[in-house]
Amino acid sequence: MYSIRLTEDEIPKKWYNIAADLPVEFPAYDQTEEGKQLENLPKIFSKGVLEQELSTERYIKIPKEVREAYKQMGRPTPLVRAKALEDHLDTPAKIFYKREDTSPTGSHKLNTAIAQAYYAKQDGIERLTTETGAGQWGTALSLACNLMDMDCTVYMVKVSFNQKPYRKTIMQLYNGEVLASPTTQTEFGRKVLAENPDHPGTLGVAISEAIEDALNDEKVYYSLGSVLNHVMLHQTVIGQETQKQLEIAGETPDVMVACVGGGSNFAGAVFPFMKDQLDEKINCKFIAAEPSHCPTLTQGDYCYDFGDTAGLTPLIKMYTMGHDYIPPSDHAGGLRYHGMSPLVALLVHEGLVEPRAVEQNDIFKSGVTFARTEGIVPAPETCHAIKVGIDEALECKKTGEEKTIVVNFSGHGLLDLKGYDDYLAGKLD
User: Fold this and answer.
1) For residue 134, what pLDDT is reported?
2) How far apart, in Å, are the Cα atoms of 65 and each of 70, 107, 119?
3) What are the backbone dihedrals phi and psi of residue 136, each rounded to the nearest 5 degrees, phi first?
4) In three state form, how does the secondary structure of 277-292 look?
5) Per-residue pLDDT tens digits for 152-174
6) Residue 2 lies in a domain
7) Cα–Cα nearest to 171, from 128, 228, 231, 226
8) Could you say which of 201, 229, 257 is where a domain stops?
9) Do 131 and 101 belong to one domain?
10) pLDDT tens digits for 258-299?
11) Which domain holds residue 266?
12) Position 6 in a domain
């Protein structure tokens, strides 16, 4: 059985909230005395997502309208056996990949974009602002806002804005406004440019600009594509579908891998399985694959820090490189973030998740291998997970173990061909 598909009726009816099952207490968000960042949250987030952000309820019902939109956007997604890749590697391991690239926007991001747009619409909001790195999140929110008859403003990290022009085109097709961050349209953007006119932009700066925009208009909310608890929650449709699909295949995962930038696709893929692990129903290794260019989990500090550069977000306990960190301008723009989901960070700190940093040339090499065997071009971000999945399969080749490896295929790379072109030409660092 190569491709395991579920029916539309099998889309999960509830999101899974791992906050109910954490092995230790979740570190509360904090604020500075002068910043009052917590007090600003109701001004920039919908009532629905704020309730979910702070909830410890194990399962939260998915609204009917959101489930209908999930169906329209192609859920459930397939789970595929990577038999050709297995044969190429000559490994006894079984490799499966969950195809989140089959959505109209080509990645997992619609799972939370639809939910966040829905709750904002319920509050009577007219526009959402957001940041985006490589463009997958900005594309997803532009489409979700268009579905809900709302406007969308996307502050896109300048280096990615220049590297990936067709991401901008797609956002505009979905009626999104796209600005290269830092911009001259916000006070913080102007401050950054005054200090460094050639600033390449970072997700931290783009978040600051998007929040400032939302704070200045009562008909506008801000929407975040990763990091926060409600975003992790919405993505758990991925893992819940995968549980059903592996059951159909008669398999139990031994290794689960996903890439991490802010943590959303990783959380979505593994959190439902993490519950099984905590309940001692499975014995699985969970690996979070990050870029060596921005090694938040493997080299960052576990401490309280702002989620943005200007300090408009609450203080969050997470692994961080520092909120003013400017990562190198590599091609995995979706993973160039200084911090990490506090939920993912907590599980790493408790030793339940293994972080692993991988080099840029190695991830593109793995992407080429995957494309030539399975026929699908992975996004550079996704290639980090594929690289680690291949490493685990090759380890099985050495040991003879017949492990089941599950990789979350978070998005396709058909709009990221400049990176592949540079790799094939030998131009990458």
Assistant:
1) 79
2) 9, 21, 10
3) -60, -45
4) HHCCCCCCEEEEEEEC
5) 999 999 988 988 888 999 999 99
6) no
7) 128
8) 229
9) no
10) 999 999 999 999 999 999 999 999 999 999 999 999 999 999
11) 75-106+237-424
12) no
Are 342 and 211 in the same domain?
no
Give the count of domains, the chain: 2
pLDDT at residue 331, rounded to an integer? 62
User: What amino acid is encoded at 331 in this protein?
Assistant: H
CB contact at 8 A, 317 and 303: yes
The reply to whether 126 and 83 lie within a common domain is: no
Instruction: Write out pLDDT tens, residues 162-205.
Output: 888 889 999 999 999 999 999 999 999 999 999 999 999 988 89
58 found inside a domain: yes
Q: Is residue 117 part of a domain?
A: yes
CATH (domain of 360): 3.40.50.1100
241: Cβ–Cβ under 8 A, 6 or more apart, which residues? Answer: 6, 10, 11, 12, 75, 76, 77, 79, 98
Instruction: Kindly tell me if the per-residue pLDDT of 332 is higher than 80.
Output: no
Q: Is the pLDDT of residue 336 over 80?
A: no
Tens digits of residue pLDDT in 27-62: 999 999 887 899 899 999 999 999 999 999 999 999
Residue 276: partners with Cβ closer than 8 Å, 6 or more residues away = 243, 282, 284
pLDDT in the model for residue 333: 60
Neighbour count for residue 424 (Cβ, 10 Å) = 12
DSSP state of 29: P
Degrees, nearest 5: CA angle 423-392-292: 45
The helix-helix angle for 47-54 and 37-44 (nearest 10°) equals: 130
Let me know whether 175 and 281 are in one domain: no
- 293 and 280 assigned to the same domain: yes
